[in-house]
Amino acid sequence: MRIDPNISLVFSTDKGRIEQEKPVEEVPQGDGIVRIHKDSKGRKGKGVSVIKGLGLDAKELKALAQKLKKQCGCGGTVKEFNIEIQTDNREQIKTLLEKMDYKVKLAGG
Question: Among 48, 81, 88, 100, which is most exposed with the fewest C-beta within 10 angstroms?
């Protein structure tokens, strides 16, 4: 039996399906300034505050988001290395982040 070098192994009865390794997501590095945007597109008019430019990995972002949600008394999530907090009160978020030694700017309308 001849083995063709152009054929790769897709399924093996020893180990089952062979899955490709997932690529590791790199943390985007910002310019050191955290920006807070107000966004309401695709949310039926409900406004959220989007926090960008933190430069933290996924685990630290989730911990920071949890802390901000508790302080603001609202919900939120982490998407694509951005934190979305379900409140229009950007000033409160700004003061909380400044207490944690971040440089913060309010961006957008």
Answer: 100
The dihedral through the CA atoms of 35, 41, 43, 47 has a sign that is positive
Closest CA to 95 of 61, 74, 71: 71
Task: Tell me the CA distances in angstroms from 34 to 3, 29, 59, 85, one per residue in order.
Answer: 56, 11, 18, 14
DSSP 37: E
Cα gap 2→21, rounded to integer Å: 29
Is pLDDT at 28 greater than 90 in this prediction? no
**Does the model's pTM come out above 0.90?**
no
CA atoms of 38 and 16, how far apart (whole Å): 48
What is the spatial distance between Cα 99 and Cα 73, in angstroms, rounded to a whole number? 18
Whether 65 has a pLDDT exceeding 90, the answer reads yes
**For 1-109, where are the alpha helices, taking DSSP H only?**
58-72, 90-99
Residue 67: CB partners within 8 Å, gap ≥ 6? none
